[in-house]
């Protein structure tokens, strides 16, 4: 896919292709379509990040709440989005021992109880052991820090999804 093709997409086409770069938030993709023409693929990402940053705290929390738990109910019931399924599988979350599953479920529950949104991390950039470690550590943070950390991870997930869509395997220069 080249930039000109992206810039000449109708919003329906744009939404079909980029609609889930932020998990279950197609409204963000629909909003940034208006910012065409993009001068680079990074420009698409920048527009998404600008949009997210312009949101009030409740909006950012809402984005985090659109993310499924790692190794949670949706994974078990097969109702994850295609992207999330692939990310969780790649991090080893589909092959947890019963002990690992138990720990992750407990920590996810504690995290949501404390912060009011789920723990979010870019699974593709990690592995199950590190994810459990990170969840344990982040559980100690203040809510304002966790909101920032969660949104940073959402941006990393977005970057990896853009890479998959646009470059079919050849990495885009990262801005994070
Ligand atoms: C996810 C997800 O669905 N993909 C990913 O990388 N992380 N969810 C989460 N709660 O962190």
Write down the CATH class of the largest domain: Mainly Alpha
CATH superfamily of the largest domain: Oxo-4-hydroxy-4-carboxy-5-ureidoimidazoline decarboxylase
How many beta-strand segments? 0
N-to-C span: 23 Å
Structural commentary:
The protein has 176 residues and is mainly alpha-helical. It has 2 domains: 3-61, no CATH class; 69-167, Oxo-4-hydroxy-4-carboxy-5-ureidoimidazoline decarboxylase (UraD-like, Orthogonal Bundle), CATH 1.10.3330. It has helices at 3-7, 11-18, 26-32, 41-54, 57-65, 73-77, 82-90, 98-115, 128-138, 143-167. The longest helix is centred in the last third of the chain and has 25 residues, at 143-167. It is globular, with a radius of gyration of 16 Å. The mean pLDDT is 94. The structure holds 1-(2,5-dioxo-2,5-dihydro-1H-imidazol-4-yl)urea (2AL). The site of 1-(2,5-dioxo-2,5-dihydro-1H-imidazol-4-yl)urea has 15 residues, from helix 7. 1-(2,5-dioxo-2,5-dihydro-1H-imidazol-4-yl)urea binds next to helix 7.
Q: Concise description?
A:
With 176 residues, the chain is mostly helical. It has 2 domains: 3-61, no CATH class; 69-167, UraD-like (Orthogonal Bundle), CATH 1.10.3330. The protein has 10 helices and no strands.
């Amino acid at each position: 896919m080249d930039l000109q093709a992206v810039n000449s997409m109708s919003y329906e086409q744009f939404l079909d292709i980029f609609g889930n770069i932020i998990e279950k938030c197609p409204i963000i993709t629909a909003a940034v379509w208006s910012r065409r023409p993009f001068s680079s693929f990074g420009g698409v990402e920048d527009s998404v990040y600008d949009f997210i940053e312009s949101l009030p705290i409740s909006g950012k929390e809402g984005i985090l709440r659109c993310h499924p738990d790692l190794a949670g109910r949706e994974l078990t019931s097969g109702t994850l989005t295609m992207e999330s399924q692939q990310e969780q599988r790649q991090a080893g979350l589909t092959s947890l021992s019963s002990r690992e599953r138990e720990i992750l479920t407990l920590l996810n529950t504690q995290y949501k109880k404390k912060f009011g949104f789920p723990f979010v991390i870019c699974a593709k950039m990690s592995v199950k052991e590190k994810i459990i470690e990170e969840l344990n550590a982040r559980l100690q943070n203040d809510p304002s820090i966790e909101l920032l950390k969660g949104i940073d991870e959402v941006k990393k997930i977005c970057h990896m999804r853009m890479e998959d869509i646009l470059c079919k395997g050849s990495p885009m220069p990262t801005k994070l």
